[in-house]
Write a structure and sequence with these properties.
Elements (H helix, E strand, L loop, with lengths): L9 H10 L11 H15 L9 H6 L3 H11 L2 E4 L13 E6 L2 E6 L4 E4 H19 L7 H7 L1
Antiparallel strand pairs: 1-4, 2-3
Helix pairs in contact: 1-2
């Protein structure tokens, strides 16, 4: 069909999906879902990785979390130290870091080797925490320090 997908009826969209090899084309009940499936199928035929569209495709598709784990395992490791909060014991409390569904619990108060991406997330978190806490410090500016002394 030469018309844009948005102009096609649901029956026409189902036929396009069937022509592209989508076996469950009758399950497409709305135009939005049908268009999404068709675009994904077209990308797949062009060799662009896409989210699977059938259960069989899903079974063959690697889990995003596992792909992230493999990527992190391949990254260079750097030493990370997450400071303790008051009354926390070293190695007993963790800072959770989740990237694309893969969670790493980084122990606080103990230097550990972590993937560079995890270290970057921790660094950004600690920087934001430090900046946010600046305005509550007793010595944040001269007027406050003088008033408190």
């Amino acid at each position: 069909m030469d018309r844009p997908l948005k102009e096609l009826t649901i029956k026409e969209l189902q036929q396009v999906a069937a022509d592209l090899g989508f076996k469950e084309f009758n399950s497409l009940k709305t135009r939005a879902v049908a268009i999404e499936v068709i675009v994904a199928l077209q990308k797949a035929k062009a060799g662009v990785p896409v989210v699977p569209t059938t259960k069989d495709d899903f079974d063959n598709w690697k889990n995003k979390r596992l792909r992230m784990k493999a990527k992190l395992d391949a990254e260079p490791k750097v030493q990370v130290f997450v400071p303790l909060e008051p009354k926390e014991k070293p190695g007993k409390v963790f800072l959770p870091v989740t990237l694309n569904g893969y969670r790493i619990d980084v122990p606080k108060g103990v230097p550990t080797m972590q993937p560079k991406s995890v270290a970057d997330v921790i660094y950004e978190h600690l920087q934001l925490t430090a900046v946010a806490g600046q305005r509550f410090l007793a010595d944040r500016d001269e007027k406050v320090a003088d008033a408190l002394s």
